[in-house]
């Protein structure tokens, strides 16, 4: 991909200013600099393939698991909540 020229950038900026709402879709790592661990990877919350209960984390956090065994879902939601404490905005958030 080539670097955008200034006309293209100006056009994008103008469209963004006119928009009533914007959605930014980023990778999970954008918040790593804020103190939030990623789910997987170095220092990730869920580096192991399965939870203690032998489920993938996606299954443990699913709606069907919440319905069938809420204690499992809440256990991992609690872990996520604890990991998020103390998080702060980073430069990427400020730019967005």
Quick description:
This protein has 96 residues and is mainly α.
Features:
mainly alpha, 0% strand
Give a description of the structure.
The chain contains five helices and no strands. With 96 residues, it is an all-alpha fold. It has one domain (6-95). The two termini are 22 Å apart. The chain has helices at 6-18, 57-60, 63-68, 70-84, 91-95.
Structural class of the helix and strand makeup? mainly alpha
* Radius of gyration, in angstroms, nearest whole number: 19 Å
Shape: elongated
% residues in beta strands: under 5%
Largest sheet report: none
> How helical, in percent, are the residues?
40-55%
| Number of alpha- plus pi-helical segments | 5
| Spans of at least 5 consecutive residues with low confidence | none
Question: Mean pLDDT, nearest integer?
Answer: 86
End-to-end distance, in Å? 22 Å
Order of helices and strands: HHHHH
Count of domains: 1
Number of strands: 0
Summarize the topology.
Elements: H1 6-18, H2 57-60, H3 63-68, H4 70-84, H5 91-95
């Amino acid at each position: 991909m080539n670097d955008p020229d200034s006309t293209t950038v100006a056009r994008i900026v103008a469209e963004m200013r006119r928009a009533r709402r914007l959605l930014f879709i980023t990778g999970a790592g954008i918040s790593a600099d804020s103190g939030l661990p990623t789910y997987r990877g170095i220092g990730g919350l869920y580096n192991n393939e399965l939870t203690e209960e032998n489920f993938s984390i996606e299954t443990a956090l699913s709606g069907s698991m919440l319905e069938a065994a809420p204690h499992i879902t809440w256990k991992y939601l609690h872990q996520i909540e604890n990991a998020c404490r103390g998080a702060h905005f980073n430069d990427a958030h400020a730019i967005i």
